[in-house]
Design goal:
Blueprint (H helix, E strand, L loop, with lengths): L1 H4 L1 H17 L4 H19 L5 H12 L1 H12 L4 H27 L5 H26 L11 H16 L5 H30 L13
Helix pairs in contact: 2-5, 3-4, 3-5, 3-6, 4-8, 6-7, 7-9, 8-9
Subcellular location: Cell membrane
Subunit structure: Homodimer.
Organism: Pseudonocardia adelaidensis
Amino acid sequence: MLNVFARVQVNRVTEPVGRWLVARGVAPDVVTVIGTVGSVAAALWFLPRDELFAGAAVVTLFVLLDLVDGAMARARGYSTPFGAVLDSTCDRVADGALFAGLTWWCLGAGGERVLGVAALLCLVSGQLVSYIKARAEGAGLSADGGLVERAERLIVALVGAGLHGLGVPYALHVALWLLAVASVWTVGQRIAAVYRSARDAGSVPPPDPAPNP
């Protein structure tokens, strides 16, 4: 959803930054790795220690680097297959660390065991949303779209954590349960999209005709 509506506005900011970094000899893969390492370290250091606002703020700063590496590749004029795989892999690692950190907080300093279920659902379903798309594309099928993609998951989780850290009651509860339900729904949407793509490609046999009475 945000990929459709916000891409142009975001590019207006990231494109100049990407060109500036490329002009100084910085490689996109370096920015990708730095952003991932920073996100993982911040999520697993601040969140379990009950420093939710600081954790959300620092993770957000490093996540923004993920927008810059793509702009750098465009400014350089080409991308590499390795860079694409590295970027996707690092996205999964950063996402996993964020929701693992929130789960750790729920089961530890936060004392919110039931909320930990929502955090685990977000962790697993978020990875599945990305995996289904990658696996479908590897099979020559399509699994685009869905209610919540990576951008929505990060924004809702980080805003919820940050507001909870500032003392807004139930901000994280609302964010995680909303994300859990929406992410599970998105998994179903993508499975349905793969089925339609396979059917259109002739990979799914038609249903057996009803027997004559």
